[in-house]
């Protein structure tokens, strides 16, 4: 991770700039990698281990270590990105490579972009299928034990129970988290006690993926219509609490 923010036109050294912006020039005597001078016999070489030719075994372990929701996200990501690839041959080659990772993954991605499942590509090294899943590779299998530092989205409408909203605000604050009020209109709503409350975000501009959890607390008259809205698949990892304020 880069921590220094370059302020000039050149962000690397050595460079060929002149004047005040000049950087140090390359000097062989200060090379970052040098070999120790000693007498040796035989052949001296830099070789990569055979495992460098295995491009798929680690990817396979990552895939089989995910839960169903995470696998859905991986498939959706492949479909999203490959749908933007102009050259159809590249799409085919990517799916052919995925067959070396997992057959079901390749089949699902191929179906998502609308192509027949191609023949698998030829791996440089045999893919190991004896490696077990690693639970540590899954985010959803290792949830944090606290809600501190996270964000709760609260969907409200006119008539939302004011006491319930206040209780949510207090509870979230005590947990060390933050809350964001979402309403059909960013101007806010009128609560059950007749008081107005502003909104932090408008419903259409606040997808569930922006929150760690969502509480849906409309008034009773609004809850039926809201339940007809099918959440996008990308929000499937966001826990939801649905409550009718007047129930």
> Whole-Å distance between the termini?
51 Å
Could you tell me the radius of gyration in angstroms? 27 Å
Biggest β-sheet strands, sense, barrel: 5 strands, parallel
Sketch the topology as an H/E string, one letter per element: HHHHEHEEEEEHE
Mean pLDDT: 85
Structural class: alpha/beta
Shape type: extended
In percent, how helical is the residue content?
A: 25-40%
Strand content: 5-15%
Low-pLDDT regions: 227-236
Counting DSSP E segments of at least 2 residues, the number of strands comes to 7
List the total number of helices: 6
For the largest sheet, list the strands in their spatial order. Answer: 5-2-1-6-7
Note down, in words, how this protein is organized.
This protein is of the alpha/beta class and 247 residues long. It is 27% helix and 10% strand. It is built from six helices and seven strands; from the N terminus they run ααααβαβββββαβ. The protein has helices at 57-65, 68-82, 88-98, 103-113, 162-174, 220-227; strands spanning 151-155, 178-183, 189-190, 196-197, 201-202, 213-216, 240-242. The strands form two sheets. It has a five-stranded parallel beta sheet with strand order 5-2-1-6-7. Strand 3 and strand 4 form a beta hairpin.
């Amino acid at each position: 991770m880069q921590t220094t923010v370059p302020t000039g036109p050149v962000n690397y050294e050595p460079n060929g700039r002149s004047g005040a912006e000049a950087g140090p020039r390359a000097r062989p005597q200060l090379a970052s990698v040098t070999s120790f001078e000693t007498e040796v016999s035989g052949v001296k070489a830099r070789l990569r281990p055979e495992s460098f030719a295995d491009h798929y075994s680690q990817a396979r372990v990552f895939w089989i270590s995910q839960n169903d929701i995470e696998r859905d996200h991986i498939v959706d990501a492949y479909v999203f990105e490959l749908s933007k690839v102009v050259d159809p041959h590249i799409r085919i080659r990517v799916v052919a490579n995925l067959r070396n990772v997992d057959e079901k993954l390749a089949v699902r991605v191929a179906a998502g972009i609308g192509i027949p499942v191609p023949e698998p590509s030829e791996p440089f090294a045999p893919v190991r299928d004896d490696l077990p899943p690693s639970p540590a590779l899954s985010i959803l299998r290792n949830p944090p034990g606290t809600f501190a530092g996270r964000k709760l989205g609260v969907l409200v409408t006119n008539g939302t129970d004011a006491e319930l909203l206040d209780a949510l605000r207090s509870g979230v604050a005590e947990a060390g988290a933050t809350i964001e009020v979402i309403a059909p209109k960013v101007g806010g709503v009128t609560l059950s006690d007749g008081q107005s409350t502003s909104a932090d975000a408008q419903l259409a501009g606040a997808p569930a993926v922006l929150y760690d959890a969502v509480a849906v607390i409309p008034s009773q008259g609004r809850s039926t219509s809201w339940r007809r809205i099918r959440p996008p698949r990308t929000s499937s990892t966001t826990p939801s609490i649905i409550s009718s304020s007047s129930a």
